[in-house]
Amino acid sequence: MTRLTPLLEHNEQFVRDYIPVALGVPTAQMVVVTCLDHRIDPAAVLGLRPGDAPVIRNAGGRITQSVINDLAYLAFLTEALFGATGPLFEVAILHHTQCGTGFLADSAFLRQAAQATGVEEQVLRASGVAEPGSTVREDVERLLASPLLSPKVSVSGHVYAIETGRVTTVVDAQVSAAG
């Protein structure tokens, strides 16, 4: 028995009513990038169902090179396999309050985290979200500035308040000035 065992029991209930979703363009024409924090369930918070939107999660929900690469591939896939024309999808970047990466703003904690994990301080610092309104703006700008972002993809920025459950739009959807 593992810690997954009770969750596998929940899966048995899920399977009873399961209806597979065919591979295709996500129905919400949205990709959500958010934090891996266990207090955020993008499906519950945004009312997403299977087939609505891919969700990319990492520490802080930050726009890293890996996330940019994934989004470039999703844009390519959407056009190449599904013949999508016009706007492809919106990337909703969703940061949140009370993020555990906010501790990385403390230099002693940052140093300790780097030593314990083997991850460079600079990399850890870049994942920090102490002020989600500011970092989500930075990430929208970072993604819009990437040459890998398709001009057919729009980007928006939002903050989820752990205290209330409310999502607030900080940056409305926009496309790259180059696009």
Low-confidence stretches: none
Overall form: globular
Give the biggest beta sheet.
5 strands, mixed
Instruction: Give the helix proportion (percent range).
Output: 25-40%
Structural class, from secondary structure content? alpha/beta
Mean pLDDT: 94
How many helices? The count is: 6
- Strand fraction: 15-25%
Secondary-structure element order, N to C:
HEHEHEHHHEE
What Rg is obtained from the alpha carbons, in whole angstroms?
18 Å
Number of strands: 5
What is the first-to-last residue Cα distance?
Answer: 53 Å
- Widest sheet, order of strands: 2-1-3-4-5
Describe the structure using short key phrases.
179 residues; alpha/beta; 5-stranded mixed sheet; 5 strands
Written overview of the protein:
- The protein has helices at 5-16, 42-46, 65-82, 107-117, 121-126, 132-145; strands at residues 30-35, 55-58, 89-96, 153-160, 167-174.
- It has 179 residues and is of the alpha/beta class.
- A five-stranded mixed beta sheet has the order 2-1-3-4-5, with helices on one face.
- The radius of gyration is 18 Å and the shape is globular.
- The model has no long low-confidence stretch (mean pLDDT 94).
